[in-house]
Design goal:
The complex is a heterodimer of chains A (about 230) and B (about 600). Chain A is an alpha+beta fold and about 230 residues long. In chain A, the strands form two sheets. In chain A, strands 2-1-5-3-4 form a five-stranded mixed sheet, with helices on one face. In chain A, strands 6-7 form a two-stranded antiparallel ribbon. The longest helix of chain A is centred in the last third of the chain and has 14 residues. The termini of chain A are far apart. Chain B has three domains: about 350 residues, FAD/NAD(P)-binding domain, CATH 3.50.50.60; about 120 residues, Flavocytochrome C3, Chain A, domain 1 (Alpha-Beta Complex); about 110 residues, Up-down Bundle (Methane Monooxygenase Hydroxylase, Chain G, domain 1). Helices cover about 35% and strands about 20% of the residues of chain B. The radius of gyration of chain B is 23 Å and the shape is globular. In chain B, α1 packs parallel to α4, α14 runs antiparallel to α15 and α14 runs parallel beside α16. Chain B has about 600 residues and is an alpha/beta fold. The chains are: A alpha+beta (about 230), B alpha/beta (about 600). Chains A and B meet through α1 and α3 of A and α3, α4, α11 and α16 of B.
């Protein structure tokens, strides 16, 4: 099938502001949007710039706006768009660097601010720390995060104030707060209860819809809010 | 020009690079340079697990793991290194758990383990539960956990910097030259120790499980700097890639009881590996699949087979095999259990194929997956320069870019993760120790010139006529057709000539982007040069090896020949020519014998 692809292009060395360019590409309905981008870059315009790596939804490089939704280009098939017209734009809310590439530094700074690592100073046993399958299941959903930024950059609260830590950072805090081996919950909950923490979330659910890993993000944020409110992790 | 000085520089931020950085940074001033944000690295796509003889579910020993790895390597792995790796695997897994890795758990709260190809109980010969897993996302969990620990320990990163060259001064490694992708600025990183952990190069082939970024950069840089590459003819084709896409379907599917079937509905692995069946080594299974297709038993006569993990199929064959659970009850599964253990696989199939593996079988074909060969090292990650194992002081390599050699002619599933953890760690420790005692050499004024030249020749090349994508496509198809699962002298000669033709045309590439900001056009061109060099070395090494061993299967020399070929290949690139020499295999406890599964 023939698809018409409109891409928001921007080269800071040449352009004053981003503008759309249109490409016509022959594609299979089962092709990924990433395949279409590669075809354009390979055979029509090598200057088109975007990040990509694994091409199957694990590395988190290729999050972008596709027909208005934040998605991974490698996990979105043409047929799933139900249209032969595709509009591709960079993520919102992060500084635009070139074409579909945005500056990820603010995103990773928010991630790092919630202490996204196991905190436990007790001497470990000679073998593994024990954890029941039920305790492991408690935080399973939030271990799936690939830091693609699709959620944070879909959030209107984040758009209006980039100091908000954003859903991805909260997801990664959740992953440790509810890990039975971790001892840093109180610290993280304190960080997340400040004015740029969880209370910026107004349960708009854009993040949950955007997540390519199907993480129940709004639910996770709610659980963190509840833990702050009740002082309990149960 | 930007100049930096560190005691240790780590290039690459996958599992091996991050393990090296975590360990080196404990005692030495360390920085990691990576062309990707660390969490984009390919370690994240590993699915099935880490092999370590914890014995959490049944009797197991590091010695059994050692023997299985030696046998899996078709006796080409160095046995001292393999023994070291399999012993170290056990503490490495506990260390990861202590770092917070969310392993799946047994009912009593210990790390869960599953069977994997080639891993056996050495007494009964039956598959053993050795692979320590976190659902089918083990690599993702490793990468996330190691990155988290790097943040905790304030490891310094230069993200989205592409390393272009290795600096060697007065016979010792002294740093690297890199380009900052966002600006095209050149940076010199002066360092007393450099660790390459840059991953593999599966993008040489058309059907591959490998990420776009796996272009063998570090391996090609080393080659250009006069360092030989070891055992490049051995490249693993994983049996179960998603048809046409190459995306990996973990061996864990077969570990959980899935079977391969042909067009007649037969579980054909029974004929090729009567004992291990679907859990034979990867080379054995990939060859069997190729032969089934060649003999017309591919699905609908095409070049793929089915991987069937539907509960009714799993239960049927588990009954026939007499498979039991650890408590002795018969092994029977439900769709829910499969979904719980293999969630990502199910998701891939639903997304890319519109197939639900609980209800339908998955179309699969062998996919180029893993380089057993690479930059030769010893067990401390020190790079060795020749058949006498002469060290290049200050230069280290680990992970898929290195060849220790623990995988020999064929890697066992799960051992790539063991490799990155064990040798990443030891390279980091050793490099830090060495760097602290070493003196900085004065860098020459023209230190960045060789790197610059490699890029400048493409910029503003208005007379160029060639496209990157055309050359890349021809290379990938050529390698798939002639240097794949089965090889012949005739085919490999065709491939070698074609690769050399492409290397000529490569100089005539015309870019569409001559700018400085994220010039991915330029980067793609440079990466293609790496792939072409490695394709040539792979083919030349394979052409010379007149035997079949592990992943290197010659139709014209179908037997293993220990008398003439029980040796490692070393390949140098000098003045555009490839020179081959050989070095002996280290054999300690296990004398080579016929390899049957």
């Amino acid at each position: 099938m023939k698809v018409t692809v409109k891409i928001l292009r921007y080269n800071p060395e040449k352009d004053k502001r981003p503008r759309y360019r249109t490409y016509h590409v022959e594609a299979e309905p089962t092709d990924r949007v990433l395949d279409v981008l590669e075809k354009i870059k390979g055979y029509q315009d090598g200057s088109l710039s975007f990040r990509r790596s694994c091409a199957h939804g694990i590395c988190g490089s290729c999050a972008m706006r596709i027909n208005g939704m934040n998605r991974l280009a490698c996990k979105t098939l043409i047929k799933d768009l139900h249209s032969d017209k595709i509009v591709i734009e960079p993520l919102l809310g992060l500084p635009l660097m070139k074409d579909l590439i945005v500056d990820m530094k603010p995103f990773f700074e928010h991630y790092q601010s919630v202490k996204p690592y196991l905190i436990n100073d007790e001497p470990p046993p000679l073998t593994e720390r024990l954890q029941s399958p039920e305790e492991r299941e408690r935080f399973d959903d939030t271990t799936k995060c690939i830091l693609c930024a699709a959620c944070t950059t879909s959030c209107p609260s984040f758009w209006s104030n980039g100091q908000y830590v954003g859903p991805a950072a909260i997801v990664n805090a959740h992953r440790f707060i509810f890990d039975s081996r971790d001892r840093g919950a109180a610290e993280r909950l304190r960080i997340l209860s400040d004015q740029f923490g969880v209370y910026r979330c107004h349960t708009i659910f854009n993040c949950t819809l955007a997540c390519p890993r199907d993480i129940q993000i709004t639910k996770a944020i709610g659980e963190v809010k509840r833990a702050i409110a009740t002082g309990s992790l149960d | 020009m930007n100049k930096h000085q560190y005691e240790v520089i780590v290039v690459g931020a996958g599992g091996a690079g991050l393990m090296a950085a975590l360990n080196a940074s404990k005692t030495a001033v360390t920085a990691v340079i990576s062309k990707l944000y660390p969490t984009r690295s390919h370690t994240g796509t590993a699915q099935g697990g880490i092999g370590a003889a914890l014995g959490n579910l049944e009797e197991d020993h590091p010695e059994w793991h050692t023997y299985d790895t030696v046998k899996g390597s078709d006796y080409l792995g160095d046995q001292d290194a393999i023994e070291f790796m399999c012993q170290e695997a056990v503490p490495a897994v506990y260390e990861l758990e202590h770092m917070g890795l969310p392993f799946s758990r047994t009912p009593d709260g210990r790390i869960a383990q599953r069977p994997f190809g080639g891993h056996t109980n050495n007494v009964t010969g039956k598959p053993v539960r050795r692979s320590c897993y976190a659902a089918d996302r083990t690599g993702h969990m490793i990468l996330q956990t190691l990155y988290q620990q790097c943040i905790k320990n304030n490891v310094q990163f230069f993200d989205e910097f592409q390393v272009l060259d290795l600096l060697i001064v007065n016979g010792v490694a002294q740093g690297v030259v890199a380009i900052e992708l966002a600006t095209s600025e050149i940076h010199i990183f002066h360092a007393n120790a450099v660790i390459f952990a840059t991953g593999g190069f599966g993008r040489i082939w058309k059907i591959t499980s490998n990420a776009y970024s796996l272009t063998g950069d570090g391996v090609a840089i080393a080659l250009r700097r006069g360092i030989p590459l070891e055992d490049m003819e051995f490249f693993q084709f994983h049996p179960t890639g998603i048809y046409k896409l190459g995306i990996l379907i973990t061996e864990g599917v077969r570990g959980e009881g899935g079977v391969l079937v042909n067009d007649k509905g037969e579980r054909f692995m029974e004929h090729y590996a009567p004992h291990a069946k679907d859990l034979a080594s990867r080379d054995v299974v990939s060859r069997a699949m190729y032969l089934e297709v060649r003999d017309g038993r591919g699905i609908n006569g095409k070049d793929y087979l089915y991987l069937d993990v539907r509960p009714e199929t799993v239960n049927k064959y588990a009954t026939l095999d007499g498979r039991t659970r650890p408590d002795g009850t018969p092994y029977q599964v439900t769709g829910e259990e499969i979904l719980q253990k293999l969630p990502d696989i199910i998701d891939f199939c639903r997304t890319y194929l519109g197939v639900d593996p609980i209800e339908q079988p998955m179309p699969v074909q062998p996919t180029a997956h893993y380089a057993m060969g690479g930059i030769p090292t010893n067990i401390y990650g020190q790079v060795v320069l020749d058949e006498n194992n002469t060290i290049l002081p200050g230069f280290y390599a680990a992970g898929e870019s290195a060849c220790v050699s623990v995988h020999g002619a064929n890697r066992l599933g799960t051992n790539s993760l063991v490799d990155i953890l064990v040798f990443g760690k030891h390279a980091g420790i050793h490099a830090a120790q060495y760097a602290r005692g070493a003196q900085f050499q004065t860098l020459p004024q023209d230190a960045a010139d060789f790197a610059r030249q490699q890029l400048d020749r493409f910029l503003n090349n208005d007379k160029g006529t060639e496209k990157i994508s055309d050359i890349a496509e021809e290379m990938k198809i050529t390698m798939m057709d002639h240097v794949g699962v089965f090889r012949t002298e005739e085919g490999m000669n065709v491939a070698l000539n074609k690769i050399r033709e492409l290397k000529q045309r490569y100089w005539n590439i015309k870019l569409d982007d001559n700018g400085k900001v994220f010039n991915t056009d330029l980067l793609n061109a440079w990466e293609l040069g790496n792939l072409l060099d490695l394709a040539e070395v792979t083919t030349a090494s394979a052409l010379a090896r007149k035997e079949s061993r592990g992943a290197h299967a010659r139709e014209d020399f179908p037997k293993r020949d220990d008398k003439n070929w029980l040796k490692h290949t070393l390949a140098w690139l000098k003045d555009g020519e490839i020179h081959l020499r050989y070095k002996p295999v280290v054999i300690t406890k296990y004398q080579p014998k016929e390899r049957v599964y």
